[in-house]
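As a warm-up, study this chain.
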Amino acid sequence: MEKEKNEQELQWLHHQPERLIEAYQPVIEIIVSSFFKKGFFNSKDKMDLVQEINLQLLESKIEKIKAHFNNSVKLRTYFSKVVYNTCLEIARKNPPKSPDDPGNILSNTPDNYRNPMQELALKEETLRLHGCLLALPKSRLKATLCLKAIAKIPFDQQDIQFLQSPKTEPEILSIKENLFANYSHLQLKEVFGLIADLYKKIEGKSTEGDSLRKWTNQLLDRFIYIMNGNPPHAAYSRETMKTLLQYYFAEYG
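Now compare it with the structure written out below.
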């Protein structure tokens, strides 16, 4: 019965798309309702949005479904994903409030007061920052330690597990004692001094805390330039970038 139903829907897809959209109206309405409940829309009428999605399906989305659907899942499942993504596209173009640039969201909006579109923007920004770090294969571990340090984020075992050796044992112990819990009371000079001592042992060359902090600020400025875009579409500063780092490391460790 279910197989026959799926085959009938496939026939409608290719020969009577209007009939398919009509049959799937309950699916569309359920997905639209979920977006309203999550707060993505506060000025649109629910049925207006349903009609907007129907129109997009007829004008372009159905043709894309025909081109890309490969029977690996049920048509209804695939169709639902298309409708979900369409809702997301409309929500991004028509946020509940005037669009905020990500830097303003971080500096002006308390966690409890961010709307769903702001939460979505924040997730996208942490993903972009992740891309920046992935572009540093040779210095990623060092960059991670230094970025955590500049934002006063506590370290954990994962951060130093590949740096531990009998040679670095005293420096690792010092970092564990001082940087594995809240260290907001420490001066940045002290924090970077501890990391510099570790890298002196690892790299076998003189490394000073001040030069390491300067390198970190240069890295931070480079990330700010990338995240702001050219031409600029955001307004990150060092302070808002430090806040984004808090969210990033909470997400990615």
